[in-house]
Structure formats: structure tokens, C-alpha cells
Amino acid sequence: MNNNSEINSGSETVILGIAGAPGIVVGRLFVLRRDKIIIKREIIPQAEIESEIQKFRDAVNESVAEIAKIKRNISGKIDDEAAGILEAHVMSVNDVELHKEVESIIRKDRLNAEFAYNGLISKVIASLEASDSDYLRQRVFDIKGIRSRVLSNLRGMKQQSPIDVEVPSIIAAKSLSAGEVAQMAGSKVLGLITAAGGATSHTALLAKSLNIPAVLGIEEKYSLLKDGMDLILDGNQGKIILSPTRVTNELYRDRRRKFKREHEQLLVARDEPALTLDGHRVELLANIELISEVDKALAVGAEGIGLYRSEFMYFTHGCLPSEEQQYRVYSAIVKKMAPNPVTIRTFDLGGDKFIDETSRPYEQNPFLGWRAIRISLALPEYFKSQLRAILKATVHGNVSIMIPMVCDLSEVKIALRIFRDVQEELSHQGIPFDALTKFGVMIEVPSAALSADVIASHVDFFSIGTNDLTQYTLAVDRGNEMLKDLFQSFHPAVLKLTSMTVDAAKRACIPVSVCGELAGDPLAAALLIGFGATSLSAPYASLPLIKNIIRKVNYEEAKHLSEQALKMESTSEVRNLLANFLTEIFEGMSSPI
Ligand code: PEP
Ligand code: MG
Fold first, then answer.
1. The model's pTM
2. How confident is the model at residue 577, as a pLDDT?
3. How far, in Å, are 101, 205, 480, 515, 563 from residue 557 at the CA level?
4. Nearest CA residue ID for atom 9, ligand 1
5. In angstroms, what is the span from residue 528 Cα to ligand 1's centroid?
6. Best residue for ligand 1 mutational test, from 288, 309, 367, 473 (most atoms within 8 Å of Cβ)
7. Ligand whose nearest atom lies closest to the CA of 521
8. Hey, which CATH number is domain 276-555, 3.10.450.330, 3.30.70.890, 3.20.20.60, 3.30.390.30?
9. Using CA atoms, how far apart are residues 551 and 26, in angstroms rounded to an integer?
10. Given a cut of 60, is residue 4 above it in pLDDT?
11. Architecture in CATH of 13-33+162-261
12. Helix 555-567 crosses helix 492-507 at what angle (to 10 degrees)?
């Protein structure tokens, strides 16, 4: 925890948090109201029964109107499919049979509407959860979301979401799920602040994708934020300045200009290759969550997509997309990028990736629980339909498939068997696909890094996910603001596992990429190349700087640097070593760190 996280100077207050997404914005604060719903059982006086029923009908109508608003906001901005999916949500809210039953309970048992509705819809949820059908079990997430919407409206409680922001504002919330951040595409949100969350949480990653500056993890200082305050949000330094003075405003105006100017200067090398001074070529790819990022990635010179986090489609659609819907999204990305490569990661749901609090299944340790490939293998129908959709899209360009959170060779073998089955089915049906599609895995769990030699002989490539590798190696929740100082991707243990994985890939002659946030960190560029990573995949905004660094580095020196880094005993020693290296290569110029 940071004890110096609040500084008072004159009339302004400075709050320090975690730099979640870069950029500086100035604006007015909109604090999202979230009320906790506690359901009570109440007996309604006979005379109030009709008005209770009316209250229920109004809540349903209001919920329908809210979903329609989300639909209007999202459609056309992320992808048009979302509109159709949200239509299905409207139908679920409008379930006539369920409503009849709710009204009958209010009339006959004289129970309050929220208790009657909650009881019935919870039974629907329980029966879906117990169903044998994968499809029905997946609907649970959606119905839980609908339940909370209707109940909040019944209570007249405001569960405000980013789409409630009507004038351009910086928003603040105790926590925001990745699903809620997805709703910010095309919204009036200028910047965001949360009390919870870490720099590699999926909330932060999505804020970066949407180009929304963010400061996360301000913890108890959240109570200082008041609706309507003027503030400066500095996502580069993880700083918020409440009621800034005229002098501070001017200072930040200059900083914003400088930030923009430096960014433009870095783009000078946009069309040049990422080549070290001694001619070693590295591939620079972008991590994306949304289709809209493909153009932005191309604009900064990305040579392909090294990680498409396909599960974000779940947030933009509001539920799991069908095979056809997936196919359309995959083909759109692949066509835009062709002939450059696109690596599509299969759904990495679970952990911190859920639509909202109510759709989160109860788990004591979600990051150690039902997540990623574990869900895909438990729901093979879904996994197969995703593989079919990806394979069908391979005819439009250069596609690879990647499996997240692999812990053990047996998972790789099962996933590969399913992949081959799907290929056979497609051939049988005469559906064209690229039979040479590469199949790779993410190495982001220590057991996988330690088994990298064994796994390497079964797959076509590795991609090292340093966000999860850090989280699982150090047993530090990546989204927990209280542990932000312990989340150290430069920890010697994380570096050892990274280098072991790269070595295993080299022995098996397969390419190895690094796609965690570390790949976009200027301090890490020479180190990762020195280890032998064949490509780096990072948020598109960090690619110009990484390329500039690579073009100033000597590969032989980078190898020597990585050998030295592996001998360091602490994170701070590693960081010092890398910072000195970077300062030397930028000698005489303003350092990028
Ligand atoms: C990682 O874990 O480093 C990674 C790239 O995957 P994600 O951040 O989506 O978990
Ligand atoms: Mg990961």
C-alpha cells in the first residue's frame, strides 16, 4: 500500500494510484452510484396489491428501455452483432410466462414484487445451472445480469453504468468489470478512476484498447472524490489532481502537448523494420481486444496481431456469441490484417473476466478456478464451435490458434484432439479452411513453463503471458490494488521461467513470442530480445517506442544484458540494470522512462 497516496498543496489535492492506461485528461467528475440490493420478504396490504403489480411492470419496462439504450450505444461502434444479442436480452426480460407467475404470487400470497420475482428467477437460474446442455448453462450469466437490472429498478435503486454519463466526464467507481468498460466504446467517458484494480487487470487492458486514460487502485482515497469536481487525470503517472490550481492546469496543458509531440516523433520509424543495429530481426505485433483496434494497430506499424483476446466479444455482445457471429468477427479482423498474421486466442473467460458482479460464479479463488482452457474443455460444444469459427476464417488470411492458461500436457493433448476432430468434420462437410493453421499455447502458469520442453514438441509456437506468469509465480492477484508493489514482472523468478520457456522453444525450433504487458514496457525490450523472443506483442500504443528501442540496441549486447539480469537477486537490481542500459543507449536524448 502507498502511504503517500494523498498530497495537499494549496487548494488542490493530489491522489496517487496505479497508472492503468496512458494519457492525460482534464474534466468534470461523475461518480457512478451503485447500491447493494438486499431482498426482503414482505406481506403487502390487500389494498396495495394492484400498485405492487404495476411497480413490477414498470421495473420490467424500465429494464427493457435500459437494454435498448445500451444497444443504441454499442451498435455500430464495436460491431453490429451486439444489437441482435441484446435483442435476445430484451426478450428474456420480457418473459411473459414468468411475469404471469410473479403477478400471481403477488396477488395470491400477497408477497412483495422483488421477493416474488427474485424467488422465481432464481429457480430458473438454478435449473439452468443443473442442465446438461452447455448452451443453457451459459445462459445463466445473462439471466443473472437481467435479474439484477430488474431488481434495482424495482427498488428504485440506481446501478449507474458508464452509459449513464450524458456529458463528457471522467468517471469514478469503486470497481468496474471488464464488461462495463466495454460499454464505454463511443460513450462520453473521458477517463476513468477506480478504487480497486491493478495495472494488468483486464479493466486496465480494455481501457488501453479504448484509449481511455485510467488511474486505478486509489483505495480509500476514493472517498475524496465527489460528483461534479474538476480534476486532472494523469494516466501516465497514475495521478489525479482534484480542484487543480491555475498553475497546475497550465503545467498539464504543456505536458499534454509534449506527450502528443513525443508520440508523433516516435512514429517516424513506423514503416521501418524492428531491426537491431547488428541486423537481428524481431517481429512487433499488437495485442487487441476489439475489432476497432486493428486500424489503430496498423496505423502505428504493427506487423500483425500477436494476441486477439477473443473473450472480449462476450462483453461486447453481452453473452457468448454464436459460431456465425464469431466467424464474422474473426474474418473481419483477419481480412483487415491480411496478409499479416493474426493469432486468435480461444476464450479466456473467468478470473476477472465476467460481465458484471451478478454474473460472476461464486468461487473462493477465481483466478485459480474455472478459467480459460478449463472452461473450454468442460464445455466442448462451445470450444468446438469456436474452433470451427476460427478455422473457417483462416481462408481470409494468416491465422494461428492459441490456447490460454495451459497447466499440463494432458490439456494440450485434449485440446489438440478436439482441434483435429473439428478439422476432420469441416473437411467432411466440404467447408474450406487452411489445413496448415498453426496451433500454439500460452505459457503463463509456472507448471507450463517448467514443462515447456515437454509441451514444445506438441505445438507450433509458444506465447509467454507475463501478466499471469507474474501472478501465478509470485502468488499475487494481478487485480488487487493492495498488492500492487508485490506484482513484479521483473522478479528474478519470473525472468527465470521466461528464459527457460524461450530456451525450450529454441530447442524445439518453434517460435516464441512474449505477449504480456512486459512486452510493451520499454525497460524490458532489450531483455526479452536478449532471451531470444522471436516476437513481442503489446498494446498498439506502446509499439512505436518499443520499435525505437530495438533499433538502437545491439543484439549481442542484449544477449549479454539478459545473462546479467538472470544473475540478479532482486527485482530492484534487475530494474536498475535495465534502466542503466536504456539510459546508455539513449545517451544525450530524453530517456523513455
Ligand atoms: C498474460 O497473462 O500475460 C496475457 C497476455 O493474457 P491476459 O492478460 O489476457 O491474461
Ligand atoms: Mg493471461
1. 0.77
2. 98
3. 73, 31, 36, 23, 10
4. 309
5. 16
6. 309
7. 1
8. 3.20.20.60
9. 35
10. no
11. 3-Layer(bba) Sandwich (3.50)
12. 130
